Amino acid sequence: MVDRRSSKAYWGKVAKPYDKLVGETGDKAHSLVINPIVLDFLGDLKGKVVLDAGCGNGYWSRKLAQRAKKVVGIDFTEELIKIADSKPFGHNLEFRQGNLKELRCPNSEFDVVLCNMVLMDMDDLDKVIGELSRVLKPNGVLVASITHPCFENPPNTTTVEDKKGRKVGRLVKHYFKTGVVVDAKQSWDDKHEYQHYHYTISNYLNAFSKHNLYVDLASEPNWVEMTGEGDHSHTPYFLIWKLKKLTV
To answer: Which residue segments constitute the domains of the chain, with CATH numbers given?
Structure first.
């Protein structure tokens, strides 16, 4: 059974199946839907120092290092950092084990911060966003992607079908109940249930605002339009932001 008390312990347990799933491109959702938008939001990285916050197995870090001056990948999961370190990468990339709630980085160290599919796995959203803002330079860019809080909060969101079995929408329950959510019907493998932390959209936006980050662009991609697959496009699976840090 999953450890419902510790996100770090949970990710240590699922590190190997996660690495197998995402590989060097991400799974289908990442490679076809999330990644193209993230790359567009990141913009030109030439000469930039970049933080990959919650780097996982490091596949995004390796991708970023091909474009940026320097990349630092940080994850709190020892098992994932070991996996990231075991794969080939260039001299301008460094992996570190560290907690996003207490980054051991100087203020304003990074031009760009990527936090890709990470914030919904953090047990203290405000602290993490505060740290990401602290290490970001004024006018720097933070790109953050998450599963959509309204429509992708399993098991509190489920597909609604008509009498003919056609998908006609989503049923949403317990949207305002925040905190850890465990879905016993989904798993990384046959041993580890799916776990995440649910926050409302206003939780995210208020934390961004509190820490001097404003939304420059946002995307709620349409799976059917981007992949050409599926039989419905009623609700988005993901929410992606490009934020900029205000000068104060």
So the answer is: 7-149+199-245 (3.40.50.150)
